[in-house]
Specification:
heterodimer, A: about 240 residues, Alpha-Beta Plaits, four-stranded mixed sheet, disordered C terminus, B: about 450 residues, mainly alpha, 18 helices, globular
């Protein structure tokens, strides 16, 4: 069996947002424009969160790419009244767009806030419509969408391996974000394979699971230096 | 002779609003329909452009529609409490007010659950949960509980209506055909009476657990998620108490309006208002206790995300609403209704209006303040929520439709259960019973 997972090395992330752009292009994530963005309606399957640590002059900024962590015990799956979101056998939390009725219950259930609602019909300003990826369906207004771990790439890689009558090689399949990262901060692979790079990184002492104490069982781990561990600056409650 | 004259007098005064229609009715009708039309336009706009015309965002995915949904379903608890519990406990003073309360239940349930239609991203698929239910979802529990409650309360409204429908049929007023069908051959025989009483008693018992389950499950759609200050076990009972609380307030406002408009002063008298006010005070204390317990627990635990929600309520963006809610749900009702001198009809109506506003705000605060502070801290400032004109227009038209349904009901059916009032001991149904001392009427 395969269980897809990811490890993100936060120490390597420069915050360049190449992954954000790659994700948008690969998955036909619409460009919402400044108006929707100012209203808090941006669709970003992958976003960069910024943390400022310390005070001047000893200050540094850290970047954290945030995407669906494809929980083992996903809160979003449980609350959907029509099973529009489900967990696949290989550990992907997927959204069935035609089944979704838009209750947005999953969006509240998700503690990572990485599910996105189509507040209006998506549109691409010319000539951006030419960038639309034919491998990925375009969503429509009134439904939820989310990171798929680039399921189209996973399936293509699996088909390729099957054709060549071999197993999928570690590192062969990369989602758009991992592929585009210039510092190779993102590693993708099979968590069930103890020899895969991503499993090794998950076992690393530097690895930390986001909001692990909620018991959601994230399949995305963040790697951080020892001295930074646990020092995620707690924002003052306002 | 004396008794039959009294019965005739009761019939005439209680049927007047069904058989006579003044110009006032049409004015109200036009005004209400105009408000509903604006809401209809707003909805068409939303269907065309998507929910972007509502001002929900990320992370506030639920807004005014869910607030109204919880509010109206809460109001619907008026009928159950007044009619079922008081019927079971044999409180005689409830006789004239049971139907007014039961109509609130049915109409509020219709208005509350229809919010789902404009809340959904794809309302055309609103039937999907019925044919492909996913039973782990609290939303499915909601669908089940509310369907059951609507069915039950329609039956519960209809059963005591049968003898009155037969009366209308026999009087040969307009819509005789309708009344004949609905009266299902009622002839007032002993046997029929016994059966009706039995059926009503059964429904009164059956409807209470259903009503409790409804608002519990409504609260669970929030409480089952991990969202700070939603994820708490107190939500079930807290919502049920709040529902009954707001239900009583809605009932008293409805009674106060109806007694003026339809000249029912004799039936909705100081006795009824006094007793309902005492119930309101009780629920106000319970509500305050739950509110205090909920917020103290959050504060003492001092968990990071919960504190963000709590602070936004106590001193942040939601503070004006929060403190207004405390004043209008506890301070004002207690200040007015705890004292005999101010526990008048006017006093109880003023208190009720504040309670309704406060309870609407409570739902608004609960939904929005938690939703805007999810576990993912970086999203805390991402979206602010101020309802758009579409959402406000829809809300206004929901309230207008609520009143419209009520008015139409009043034009078709008697608002006071005529046969039950006739059967009442004289001191309850006697016109002009006058103010009654609180201590002497504790039924």
């Amino acid at each position: 069996m395969t269980t897809w997972g990811m490890a993100i090395d936060v120490d390597r992330c420069t915050g360049c947002e190449a992954c954000v752009v790659a994700c948008r292009g690969e998955n036909n994530v619409p460009i919402d424009g400044p108006e929707a963005t100012s209203k808090g309606r941006t669709t970003e399957w992958l976003r960069i969160e910024r943390f400022i640590e310390g005070t001047f002059p000893r200050v540094r900024m850290r970047f954290k790419p945030v995407l669906c962590v494809h929980c083992d015990n996903a809160p979003c799956v449980k609350v959907c009244p029509v099973s529009a979101t489900y967990e696949s056998e290989d550990g992907l939390n997927a959204q069935i767009h035609p089944r979704c009725i838009g209750t947005r219950a999953c969006a509240h259930a998700c503690p990572y806030t990485v599910r996105f609602f189509n507040w209006s019909e998506p549109s691409w300003e010319a000539p951006l419509e030419q960038t639309i990826n034919p491998d990925v369906a375009i969503r429509w207004k009134g439904i939820m969408e989310k990171c798929t771990f680039c399921v189209q790439r996973i399936r293509r890689g699996e088909d390729q391996a099957k054709e060549e009558a071999r197993a999928v090689r570690d590192g062969e399949i990369d989602p758009a974000c991992a592929q585009s990262c210039p510092t190779r901060a993102i590693t993708f692979g099979d968590l069930d394979d103890p020899d895969s790079q991503v499993s090794a990184l998950h076992r690393s002492a530097r690895a930390e699971l986001p909001l692990a104490d909620l018991g959601t069982g994230p399949r995305v781990a963040y790697l951080m230096e020892g001295e930074w561990r646990g020092s995620v600056p707690a924002r003052e409650a306002d | 002779m004396e008794a039959s004259r009294r019965e005739k007098q009761i019939e005439d005064s209680l049927l007047r609003h069904v058989v006579e229609t003044g110009s006032g009715f049409y004015i109200v009708l036009v005004v209400l329909l105009a408000i509903i039309a604006v809401g209809g336009l707003a909805w068409m706009r939303q269907l065309r452009d998507g929910l972007s015309v509502a001002s929900m965002n990320q992370p506030v995915y639920w807004g005014l529609y869910i607030t109204n949904y919880i509010f109206f379903i809460g109001i619907s608890h008026a009928g159950t409490l007044i009619s079922a519990i008081l019927r079971l406990t044999g409180a005689e003073w409830r006789r004239p007010i049971t139907r007014v309360a039961e109509v609130i239940t049915v109409v509020a349930l219709i208005m509350g659950s229809s919010n789902i239609l404009w809340h959904l991203g794809r309302p055309e698929l609103a039937y999907l949960p019925m044919i492909h239910p996913q039973f782990l979802s609290p939303l499915i529990w909601d669908v089940g509980a509310i369907s059951l409650y609507i069915t039950g309360s329609i039956i519960y409204l209809y059963l005591p209506l049968i003898p009155d429908l037969a009366l209308l049929r026999d009087r040969g007023t307009r819509f005789k055909g309708l009344y004949t069908i609905l009266a299902v051959g009622w002839d007032g025989s002993e046997r029929q009476h016994a059966r009706l009483e039995k059926a009503i008693s059964f429904m009164a018992v059956a409807i209470i657990p259903v009503a409790v389950s409804v608002h519990t499950v409504v609260s669970w759609t929030l409480a089952m998620t991990l969202v700070p200050m939603w994820h708490t076990a107190i939500f079930g009972p807290y919502f049920v108490v709040g529902a009954i609380f707001s239900g009583i307030a809605a009932l008293m406002i409805a009674m106060a309006i109806l007694r003026k408009v339809f000249h029912l002063e004799e039936y909705f008298g100081p006795l009824q208002f006094n007793n309902l006010s005492l119930l309101l005070v009780t629920m106000s204390c319970l509500w305050a206790y739950f509110t205090f317990a909920e917020h103290l627990t959050a504060w003492y635990g001092h968990e990071h995300a919960e504190m963000a929600v709590l602070n936004s309520r106590l001193s942040g963006a939601f503070a004006p609403y929060f403190w207004f809610m405390i004043v209008s749900c506890f301070v004002i009702p207690m200040g007015i209704l705890a004292f005999k001198r101010t526990r008048t009809i006017t006093g109880s109506v003023i208190a009720s209006v504040f309670v309704l506003i406060g309870m609407w705000l409570e739902r608004f605060i609960i939904v929005i303040s938690s939703a805007s502070h999810p576990r993912s801290e970086q999203m805390w400032d991402a979206g602010t929520y101020t309802p758009s004109w579409v959402e406000i227009a829809m809300t206004a038209s929901e309230f207008a439709a609520f009143i419209l349904f009520y008015v139409v009901f009043a034009k078709l059916f008697p608002l006071v259960s005529i046969w039950e009032v006739k059967e009442a001991p004289p001191e309850v149904s006697e016109p002009g019973a006058g103010p009654v001392d609180a201590a002497s009427v504790q039924a």
